[in-house]
């Protein structure tokens, strides 16, 4: 779950760009949490509180 959120934040700046190069900084000032990050946290919370 944490890896999914990190990946979502790191890739957020490429969300609307067709970036195919493997050469890029992992985190940049343009990186930000997205709605997918929020949904991942909501799912984790729901799983933890409903077991």
Question: What would the keywords be for this entry?
Answer:
single chain, 51 residues, mainly alpha
Task: Describe the protein.
By secondary structure, this protein is mainly α. The protein has one domain. The chain is built from 2 helices and no strands. α1 (2-11) packs antiparallel against α2. The radius of gyration is 13 Å and the shape is elongated.
Low-confidence region ranges:
none
What's the alpha carbon Rg, rounded to whole Å? 13 Å
Question: How many distinct helices?
Answer: 2
Helical percentage: 40-55%
Strand content: under 5%
Distance between the termini: 17 Å
Question: Mean pLDDT across all residues, rounded?
Answer: 90
